Amino acid sequence: QVQLVESGGALVQPGGSLRLSCLVSGVIFSRYGMGWYRQAPGKQREFVARITTGGETSYANSVKGRFTVSRDNAKNTVYLQMNMLKPDDTAVYYCTAWSTTFWGQGTQVTVSS
C-alpha cells in the first residue's frame, strides 16, 4: 500500500520559516521524482516545487528564491524548506510522487500575524 504522509504545517508569522516533510512508503522512493503542490481556499491546486530522482529541482515563480525542495532517499522523505513566508503562501500543501496518482493528505500552512 502506497502512503505519502505530510507533516510540519503550522501557523507562522509573515517572514517566518517552516519545513514540511513527506514520508513515503510502499514504493521504492529513490525511483520517483517528487513534487509539492498547494491549494488555497477557493483556488485550484497549484505546482510549488519538484525534485527529480537525480536531485534536479524546479520551482514555481512565486516561491523561487524562498523555498527549497530536497530529498533523503535513506529516509524515504522529501522536504520543503519555506523561508520568508508571506500570507499568500497560506494553503494546504500536498506532496505527490511525480507522474503517479499517489498523493498525501496534505498539511495546513497558515501565514498570519
Helix percent reads under 10%
Please provide the ordered H/E string of secondary-structure elements: EEEEEEEEEE
How many strands appear in the DSSP assignment?
10
End-to-end Cα distance, whole Å, is 40 Å
Q: Residue ranges: pLDDT <50 for 5 or more in a row?
A: none
3D shape: globular
Query: What is the mean predicted local confidence, pLDDT?
Result: 97
The total count of helices amounts to 0
Biggest β-sheet strands, sense, barrel: 6 strands, mixed
**Structural class by sheet pairing and helices:** mainly beta
Major β-sheet strand ordering = 2-10-9-4-5-6
Question: What can you tell me about this protein's structure?
Answer:
With 113 residues, this protein is mainly β. It has strands at residues 3-7, 11-12, 18-25, 34-39, 46-51, 57-59, 67-72, 77-82, 91-97, 107-111. It is globular and about 40 Å long. It starts with a strand and ends with a strand. The mean pLDDT is 97.
Keywords:
113 residues; 0% helix; 10 strands; mainly beta; globular
Tell me the layout of helices and strands.
Layout: E1 3-7, E2 11-12, E3 18-25, E4 34-39, E5 46-51, E6 57-59, E7 67-72, E8 77-82, E9 91-97, E10 107-111
Parallel strand pairs: 2-10
Antiparallel strand pairs: 1-3, 3-8, 4-5, 4-9, 5-6, 7-8, 9-10
Task: Write a short abstract of this structure.
With 113 residues, the protein is an all-beta fold. The protein has strands spanning 3-7, 11-12, 18-25, 34-39, 46-51, 57-59, 67-72, 77-82, 91-97, 107-111.
